[in-house]
Amino acid sequence: MSTHTLGLIGSATDGLENIRTALVEPAIERGWQVAVTLTPTAGTWLEDTGELARIEAATGLPCRVAPRMPREASPHPPIDCFLVCPASANTVAKLALGLADNQALTTVCEAIGVQSVPIVVFPLVNAAHVRHPAWNAHLAALREAGVHLLTGDEYWPLHEPRSAPAGKDLPWDKILDAVESASG
Ligand SMILES: Cc1cc2nc3c(=O)[nH]c(=O)nc-3n(C[C@H](O)[C@H](O)[C@H](O)COP(=O)(O)O)c2cc1C
Fold this sequence. Notes:
This is Flavoprotein. This protein is α/β, with parallel strands linked by helices.
């Protein structure tokens, strides 16, 4: 039985509602233990639909949204690989700048600095996000820090806002393949 733990960080984008069935459960089937942390907005979205509780039942671990109290121990085991997926433009920008104003960002910003485990990021962004003047510098900063960025047409072709083809699914299996390849 593998003890490899995937730290899955979810932010508030399209497709977030599918992370249990498309990412968490398939990762568990591939032999990972999965510990999920959500941004505050992502947490409210999944709490609203009941998915947060279903993720906790599937993983056997609490979903982290709020920071722990100083007297509390971390509820998650040590992480062997981080996957930020889906990563909003907002979360990518904050990660690149080292802003850690929520539990999800705190966890990954620290991991970027520690440099001991692979970090894979799948930005789910549109053409407008990418035209922001700071975007390319954000990606360059993350690449420079050794973050594995899953970008480009093979992962997610860019569309103008609200123009992605209806029903287009995210490349979940390719994302998990990238996690495995980054984890060596
Ligand atoms: C229904 C809905 C879908 C959204 N989809 C995306 C998306 O695909 N990509 C993105 O970068 N932002 C998207 N947003 C905007 C983000 O939710 C917003 O920027 C939020 O502040 C991100 O917060 P977080 O990064 O802390 O999760 C969406 C917002 C809504 C309401």
